[in-house]
C-alpha cells in the first residue's frame, strides 16, 4: 500500500509516518529529511537548497522529483508513505508517472486537518533527537528530565533552522498557495481521505489506522 500524508507544516506528518513505519513495516520517504541530509553532507545540491529551506520556501520540483525517483528504485516492499511530497501539482503529476512506470499505484491520500494557531504553537515548541529523529514538544512531550532520548538514549537534541516564526509564515503561505491545491486534485481522483489532525498522537494514529483498514 502506498500513501501520501498531506497537511501543512506542523500537522504531524512526520510523527504519524514514523508510527506507520513501526506498525506496518512501511517505508517513509520524507523529502524534508532527504534535503536536510543533503545539506549536512555538504553536496552541491545541499548547499543550493540550504538558504531556500531556511527561508521557508519550496526547493525546485526538479530537485525533489530527482530525490524521490532515486529512492523509488530501491526495495519498497511494505509500501511507501510519502511525507512532505508531493507539494506542488507538478510533483503530483511526476509521482503518478513514476508509480505507473514502476507498476505501482497510489492507494490513499491522507489529509490531516489542523488549524493555523495550533501549527504555530506546535512548531515553535518542537525539537528532535539528532541521533534517531524522535520528535519532542516542549509542552506536550518534553525531553525527559535526565536529558536522554526516550527512544535511543542519545542527548543531542536539535531545533530546525526553519522552525521560527518568520520562516513559518512563509512555509504556511507556500502551503496554501502551492500545496493545498493538491486537496482538490486528489479529491477529483477519488483518493482523498480526511483525518482530524488535532488530537493526541495516539488518537490521530488510531484515526489513520481505522481509515487505512476500512478503505
Ligand atoms: P514541514 O512540513 O514541517 O515544513 P519538511 O521537513 O517536510 O517540513 O520540509 C522542510 C523544507 O524542505 C520545506 O520548507 C522546503 O523548503 C523543503 N521541501 C521539503 N519537501 C519539499 C518538496 N516536496 N518540494 C519542495 N520543497 C520541499
Q: Quick summary of this structure?
A:
This protein has about 220 residues and is an alpha/beta fold. It contains 9 helices and 8 strands. The strands form 2 sheets. It has a 5-stranded parallel sheet with strand order 2-3-1-4-8. The protein has a 3-stranded antiparallel sheet with strand order 6-5-7.
Could you explain the architecture of this structure?
The structure is a single chain. The protein is an alpha/beta fold and 215 residues long. 49% of the residues lie in helices and 15% in strands. It has helices spanning 13-24, 31-41, 44-55, 61-72, 89-101, 116-124, 165-179, 181-188, 201-214, and strands spanning 3-6, 27-30, 80-83, 108-113, 126-129, 135-137, 157-158, 192-196. Helix 2 (31-41) crosses helix 3 (44-55) and helix 4 runs parallel beside helix 5. Adenosine-5'-diphosphate (ADP) is lined by residues 9-10, 31-32, 35, 52-53, 56-59, 64, 84-85, 87, 91, 162, 171.
Sketch the major β-sheet: 5 strands, parallel
* Class by SSE composition: alpha/beta
Question: Cα distance, first to last residue?
Answer: 11 Å
Task: Find the count of extended strands (DSSP E, 2+ residues).
Answer: 8
What is the typical, i.e. mean, pLDDT?
93
Identify the strand order in the major beta sheet: 2-3-1-4-8
Low-confidence runs of at least 5 consecutive residues: none
> How much helix, percentage-wise, in residues?
40-55%
Shape: globular
Helix count equals 9
The ligands found in this model are:
adenosine-5'-diphosphate
Percent strand equals 5-15%
Radius of gyration over all CA atoms, rounded:
17 Å
Amino acid at each position: 500500500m502506498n500513501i501520501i500524508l498531506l497537511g501543512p507544516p506542523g500537522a504531524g506528518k512526520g510523527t504519524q509516518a514514523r508510527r506507520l513505519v513501526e506498525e506496518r513495516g512501511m517505508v517513509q520517504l520524507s523529502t524534508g529529511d532527504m534535503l536536510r541530509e543533503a545539506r549536512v553532507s555538504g553536496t552541491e545540491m545541499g548547499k543550493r537548497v540550504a538558504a531556500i529551506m531556511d527561508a521557508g520556501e519550496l526547493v525546485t520540483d526538479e530537485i525533489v522529483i530527482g530525490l524521490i525517483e532515486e529512492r523509488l528504485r530501491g526495495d519498497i516492499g511494505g509500501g511507501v508513505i510519502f511525507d512532505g511530497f508531493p507539494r506542488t501539482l507538478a510533483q503530483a503529476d511526476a509521482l503518478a508517472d513514476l508509480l505507473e512506470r514502476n507498476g505501482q499505484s497510489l492507494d490513499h491520500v491522507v489529509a490531516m486537518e489542523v488549524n493555523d494557531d495550533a501549527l504555530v504553537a506546535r512548531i515553535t515548541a518542537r525539537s528532535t533527537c539528532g541521533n534517531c529523529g524522535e520528535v519532542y514538544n516542549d509542552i506536550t512531550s518534553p525531553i525527559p528530565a535526565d536529558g536522554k532520548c526516550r527512544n535511543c538514549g542519545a542527548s543531542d537534541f536539535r531545533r530546525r533552522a526553519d522552525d521560527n516564526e518568520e520562516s513559518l509564515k512563509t512555509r504556511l503561505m507556500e502551503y496554501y498557495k502551492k500545496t493545498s491545491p493538491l486537496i482538490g486534485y486528489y479529491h477529483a481522483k477519488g483518493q482523498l481521505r480526511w483525518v482530524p489532525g488535532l488530537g493526541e498522537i495516539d488518537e490521530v494514529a488510531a484515526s489513520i489506522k481505522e481509515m487505512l483498514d476500512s478503505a
